[in-house]
Amino acid sequence: SYVLTQPPSVSVAPGKTAKITCGGDKIETKAVHWYQQKAGQAPVVVLYHDGVRPSGIPERFSGSNSGDTATLTINRVEVGDEADFYCQVWDSTSDHWMFGGGTKLTVL
Amino acid sequence: EEQLVQSGAAVRKPGESLNISCEASGYSFPNYWIAWVRQMPGKGLEWVAMIYPADSDAKYSPSFQGQVTISADKSTSTAFLQWSTLKASDTAIYYCARHIEGYWYFDLWGRGTLVTVSS
């Protein structure tokens, strides 16, 4: 099955830029979606199709997808951005939906 | 307002059965796939299964095939996840989520149902 690999944790100071990666074999051929899950809450999609922001998601969130790595970038990080972030793809070969292991974003 | 309202927390003993629910409102329930996603304590998200309520076509993750049953009732706009024999390892929060076909992501989530299996 298709495997997505994320770093367990990323730390960043307020106002700086955070980059969270999601690795997978030829992931550039897949649409990557990103979810933010704050403590005790359900996940919320922050980007779909690599970098499209749903209504209500700040422009500070952006995404890219190239080669074997997709990246979620958060500019001007705020304390309120602290959360777990998950990437997700649909694997057409198996017709299964896969999540990465998640990355805990800590705002120092 | 579009929303998914899940049933409340459940506590069962190993070997017991359980049915949890997810009621949709504010949109055309039959025309969107609904998925269940598991989150074990302190762990990440795992896709469990999904169903298309219009015709009850269902897909299962290999990890959950045979362990759970997904179903849907169009008359009540409700999706279900069922266990016939619970195990302690089924202890987790289970989220239902609406799937956007053609885009392959989940745009609307329920608040989750905590299932605790303990003797």
* Secondary-structure element order of chain B, N to C: EEEEEEEEEEE
Give the N-terminus to C-terminus distance of chain A in angstroms: 36 Å
- Poorly predicted regions of chain A are none
The percentage of residues in β strands of chain A lies in over 45%
Number of helices of chain A: 0
Low-confidence stretches of chain B: none
Relative strand content of chain B: over 45%
Could you characterize what this model shows?
The complex is a heterodimer of chains A (108) and B (119). Chain A is an all-beta fold. Chain A has strands at residues 9-12, 18-23, 33-37, 44-47, 61-66, 69-74, 83-91, 96-99, 103-107. In chain A, strands 1, 3, 4, 7, 8 and 9 form a 6-stranded mixed sheet that branches. In chain A, strands 2-6-5 form a 3-stranded antiparallel sheet, with no helix packed on it. Chain A is globular, with a radius of gyration of 13 Å. The model of chain A has no long low-confidence stretch (mean pLDDT 97). In chain B, the strands form 2 sheets. In chain B, strands 2, 4, 5, 6, 9, 10 and 11 form a 7-stranded mixed sheet that branches. The interface between A and B is medium-sized, with 26 and 22 residues.
Highlighted features:
heterodimer; A: 108 residues; mainly beta; 6-stranded mixed beta sheet; 3-stranded antiparallel beta sheet; 9 strands; 45% strand; globular; B: 119 residues; 7-stranded mixed beta sheet; 4-stranded antiparallel beta sheet; 11 strands
